[in-house]
Amino acid sequence: MVDNRFATALVIACVLSLLASVYLCVALGTQHWYLYSSPAAREANASDLRALYEEFMDGEFDEKTYSDTLFRLNGTVGLWWRCVSVPSSAHWFKDPDTKFVLECRSFTLPQQFIPKYKEPGNHNSGEDLLRTYLWRCQFLLPLVSLGLIVLAALIGFCACLCRSLTPTLAIGVFHLIAGLCTLATVCCYLAGMDLLHRVSMLPDKVDGSLGWSLYLALISSPLHMMSAALLVWAARSHSQNYYRMTAYRVA
């Protein structure tokens, strides 16, 4: 038999874990981690912006090229996507009511491992190890987090079939590590963006802001930690009650 308090804690922990997992998956699959707000295109710079856009869509992968395009075309960037906002019509500056569409390119797996340089786009400037490993950690850590959640779910399913609370402590530890990995992902991302803006200055009248995808990832971290706390408490309390009951029956 499981005490009602433990059963309630387990149900709440499962709900929190499910919410956190959904938030994390949505955050990973969307590109609104960081947003740039750029001034509207004018006739004088329309041809330059179009050339940047074409290079962004069809050119080779280069950090300076795609960063400059993001800065100047209301770009959004995530862990796996980079997008720019471009007019749907052929004339970028003549029609003030032009509708804008979001054009995206994904970061391939090999591109995630490409080193970053002290001067973006200049391979002779030397590798920036800090930015390189921050970039790699920001996409590896959430995958580790999701893997731990899946593993915890499998262990929990087996525990339900066996009607045992013994693995609950391990499940709680997995959720705690998953929450820490998600929090570390957000920290690595913010640190990496700050370092990028230091070595590649934003143009005039261009502002950057955090997007809702990043906030979803940030919210999922404490949810996983709260779920872990409830699971660990249920496991420890049930274990203590079990030992006390066994000692009482022996006595």
In brief, what are we looking at here?
The chain is α+β, with helices and mostly antiparallel strands and 251 residues long. The chain has helices spanning 4-29, 46-58, 63-72, 109-112, 129-162, 168-199, 212-250, and strands at residues 34-37, 76-77, 81-87, 100-106, 207-210.
Overview of this structure, please?
Pfam families: Claudin_2 (PF13903). Keywords: Membrane, Transmembrane, Transmembrane helix. The chain crosses the membrane at residues 139-162, 169-192, 212-235. The protein has 251 residues and is of the alpha+beta class. The protein has one domain (4-250): Butyryl-CoA Dehydrogenase, subunit A, domain 3 (Up-down Bundle). It is 63% helix and 10% strand. The protein is built from 7 helices and 5 strands; from the N terminus they run H-E-H-H-E-E-E-H-H-H-E-H. It has helices spanning 4-29, 46-58, 63-72, 109-112, 129-162, 168-199, 212-250; strands at 34-37, 76-77, 81-87, 100-106, 207-210. The protein has a 5-stranded antiparallel β-sheet. A hairpin with a 3-residue loop joins strand 2 and strand 3 (81-87). Helix 1 (4-29) runs antiparallel to helix 7 and helix 2 (46-58) packs across helix 3. The two termini are 21 Å apart. Residues 240-251 have low confidence and may be disordered.
Mean pLDDT: 82
Weakly predicted, low-confidence segments: 240-251
Radius of gyration, taken over Cα atoms and rounded to an integer in Å: 24 Å
Protein structure class: alpha+beta
How helix-rich are the residues, as a percent range? Answer: 55-70%
CATH class reads Mainly Alpha
First CA to last CA: what distance?
21 Å
What CATH calls the topology is Butyryl-CoA Dehydrogenase, subunit A, domain 3
Helices, by number, come to: 7
Sketch the topology as an H/E string, one letter per element: HEHHEEEHHHEH
The major β-sheet equals: 5 strands, antiparallel
Tell me, briefly, the overall form.
elongated
- In total, the number of strands is 5
Portion of residues in beta strands equals 5-15%
Using the 3D structure, state the CATH architecture: Up-down Bundle
Count of domains: 1
Strand order of the largest sheet: 4-3-2-1-5
InterPro entries: CLDN1 (IPR042356), PMP22/EMP/MP20/Claudin (IPR004031)
Main location: membrane
GO cellular component, one term: membrane
Keywords: Membrane, Transmembrane, Transmembrane helix
